[in-house]
């Protein structure tokens, strides 16, 4: 009895040994204990902006991105203004990827003759594999300088009154190949506000995302809810819906939005358009990238 | 009885065992050349293992490990062409058909023929090519072959058709180490 048990055990061992070998023969690579790697989720968005807001995509290391953002006038201005086409608000800017987790940018908008600069850093990166991270977390800080002539040049005007700052967290996740969503808790600080009843700090919560329709076309959207009693009632929450179209070298972003400004302090706290009255801009963003610093493996070769 | 079985088992495992060589940091590069633009990409994260006796060989490379000169190219490669999220790896499974000509203990350059199945973008194709083993202080395997994106259901849109070659050259270079259990 004991012996036969031993025998059967040994046979089992033998067979399992054989089984192991035959398996190895079908896939030898599995014998290399797979050093599981961390795979970071990429291709969350086509562009570094959803429409006005920053997306989860950053400008890659060593890449300079020249961006033109353009909004026509409100479509409800009628045929006299050619439904807004006669008017234009524009922001020209340069973004640069210092590392793959840190990007900076500067820009100049025609709206309030605003100069802006920003820094955006990845804090957490969504990943699978050895290190699993369900979300991406990024931090955006912007400074905006309004350079309009002083309304009241006779009074004691301070340069600091021109400044506004934005701090934003971008919490996002790519749920599937086609769906990426993000939340954007936002704090805008204005050094100077219109009257003393208004608060200098404005808290808002933004939401945005994209749905890929094909490999080259995606629908995007974003919305900011400004918490009540912080800005004048005449201002609206910012909303934008767009289409991203990729044509090989460029990404064209076409969209409709009720916001005229294209930087954070502007579209979060100074959106005037009521979308239900037809205060809608047609607009587009164009980006053109230049590789200034090539990846290591290409530096020697040419 | 027990001893006999142990002996039998040991003998059997030795028979089944034969020397294998492997790498986890093999280099794979590909080149697309057109009058408009030359594109190349490199990976040094390819894994490979082969059996010096039977000639059976396998290769695998994470598609996302390919580095391009321009980040945008890399993104398009992963997102639009090979769709790396869905098909994360390129693999080859086949055989060095004349492995018996290679003397792994003697320095020299040995030509070998390779044939097997190449899988990219979820599509498997039979390929045949030749390469060589260079036995020096280590064991180096090198090969070159060409593929067509269209064979692997990789669609190239009209706007970039002039920039991406119909035939892509692939270079494989592996520094093998002895595989010890």
Q: Characteristics of this structure?
A:
heterodimer, A: mainly beta, Porin, 12-stranded antiparallel barrel, 3 helices, 12% helix, elongated, B: 181 residues, 8-stranded antiparallel barrel, 9 strands, YceI family protein (chain B), Lipid/polyisoprenoid-bd_YceI (chain B), TTHA0802/YceI-like_sf (chain B)
Task: Describe the protein.
The complex is a heterodimer of chains A (302) and B (181). Chain A has 302 residues and is mainly beta. Chain A has one domain: Beta Barrel (Porin). Chain A contains three helices and 14 strands. Chain A has helices at 2-26, 264-269, 296-299, and strands at residues 38-40, 63-74, 88-99, 102-109, 114-124, 127-129, 136-146, 163-174, 179-190, 201-212, 217-226, 239-246, 251-257, 281-291. In chain A, the strands form two sheets. A twelve-stranded antiparallel beta barrel of chain A has the order 2-3-4-5-7-8-9-10-11-12-13-14. In chain A, strands 1-6 form a two-stranded antiparallel sheet. In chain A, strand 3 and strand 4 (102-109) form a beta hairpin. The radius of gyration of chain A is 26 Å and the shape is elongated. With 181 residues, chain B is mainly beta. Chain B has one domain (19-179): Beta Barrel (Lipocalin). Chain B is built from two helices and nine strands. In chain B, strands 1-2-3-5-6-7-8-9 form an eight-stranded antiparallel barrel. The model of chain B has no long low-confidence stretch (mean pLDDT 88). The interface between A and B is large, with 38 and 44 residues.
